Amino acid sequence: RVADSLMLLLVLALSCNPSTAATASPSAPHIKPSYSFGRTFLGLDKCNACIGTSICKKFFKEEIRFDTWLSSHLKLPPSYLLSYSGNYTDDAKSWRLVDITRLTSKYRHDRADQRICTSLLKTKTCSLERALRRTHRFQKWLRAKRLTPDLVQGLSSPMLRCPSQRLLDRIVRRYAEVPDAGSIYMDHLTDRDKLRLLYTLSVNSHPILLQIFPDVEGWPFPQYLGSCGRLVVSASTRPLRDFYGAAPEVVADRALQILAVLRSMGTNDLNYFFYFTHVDAGTFGVFSNGHLFIRDASMLGIIDKEEGTQ
Average pLDDT, stretch 77-103? Predict the structure, then answer.
């Protein structure tokens, strides 16, 4: 009865919202003249206070293209946007849609960068890497052989509010921004890698969740394709708000899928309990095949149900 009531509420909520037209993105971009990227737009000028560089070559080789590159005037989209629609290819022939997102707005990034410089080095602008390397937390990271709860204590990410050692080991073992992941120990992480991992966990844990709970293993998250500077690239999904005002059977299907996702978040083979600290119209997304996924994992908390049995 509780499940039926929840489904009814979800159906009503989706049906009563105003319709938002979805803009379809072309599946095969037209060939355009070469464009020289600015490091500032990507956030590469901030590295190693960034997410990573694993997919930068794709941008520079134009194997990832923004939708604005399909227009008559080749130009970068506005830098103040949080997300962009793009196209991705591995062979320059077949293309697929991707989402290109920032962990937070450029304005907030810039304000945070300025505060770091002001508080640590007493200047308005500085080398962020140099400033962050001076912090007590990062000095502890440099000496650590293993990522332990005390190293992430106080970080604002909901995922790290009560982290178990098992969860932290999973983060290190599956960290996709290094080529030789697989060990729970951080010996394979350079100082640069540690700073990037700490930065990502501090700002927004969304890309880390996509890496450690991949879609190919049945987790309800989009595929993580890589990052460049302060941009993350993942498989494209349509936000749930695009289905406001859809046919009743479509709305009912989306509601049932949300309930199934919520059940899997509480009961799964790895004994992790996931919970939302915030939900809005952009939290869930739908792939082109109709499957519903968690589009924004930044507000997910995790409780390790095995913690109390060890």
Answer: 90
Q: Between β-strands 95-102 and 231-235, what pairing exists: parallel, antiparallel or unpaired? A: antiparallel
What is the rounded CA–CA span in Å between residue 14 and residue 245?
7
> Rounded to whole angstroms, how far apart are CA atoms 202 and 154?
9
Show the tokens assigned to 222: 């989009």
Whole-number Cα distances in Å, 171 to 32, 67, 227:
39, 33, 16
Asked whether 163 and 303 are in contact (CB, 8 A), the reply is no
* pLDDT per residue as tens digits for the range 9-50: 333 333 333 333 333 344 444 444 444 566 888 999 999 999
Burial class (CB in 10 A: 0-12, 13-18, 19+), 209: buried
Residue-wise over 113-146: b if at least 16 C-beta within 10 A, else e?
beebbeebeeeeebebbebbbeeebbeebeeeee
pLDDT at 76: 76
Q: What pTM does this model have?
A: 0.83
Name the burial class of residue 24, with classes exposed (0-12), middle (13-18) and buried (19+) by CB atoms within 10 angstroms of its CB: exposed
Position 190 scores a pLDDT of 95
